[in-house]
Amino acid sequence: MTLAVLFGIVLVVFVLCDLIWLSNVTTPAFKKEVGSILRQTPDAASAIAFYLMYAAGIVAFAAYPALQSESLVEAAIRGAAIGFFAYMTYELTNMATIEGWKWHMVFSDTAWGVFLTAVAAMVGVLGAMTLGFGPGD
Fold first, then answer.
1. Rounded to two decimals, what is the model's pTM?
2. pLDDT in tens, 97-112
3. How far apart are CA 96 and CA 43, in angstroms?
4. Which residue ranges make up each domain of the chain?
């Protein structure tokens, strides 16, 4: 039950915050640079698969270990590390393969990924603890 609660909280926080960010910041900014390669409408199946898999990764490698030690700081640090490596991998791959990808896109999107992943992990742990879940549950 603990993993399901963590997963649900992390997923909701991550998706809601990311959709707000994508709608208001990233998509308008990236359209200026690489608009010709962006889809008019995102592929829903791919987006859903990403969000489910990424939330599971946050839970497995950040939120659950931090819940076991009851540490929001650990959640933040682990989440930030996951965000850094995941987003930097994506961004540097794009930088290497997509004409027009710019360094400011790499840095701004990676900063967002670090922040959002850390926040999602922390809120997941805080939510689970508030609901009475903790080590050994």
1. 0.94
2. 999 999 999 999 999 9
3. 23
4. 2-35+42-130
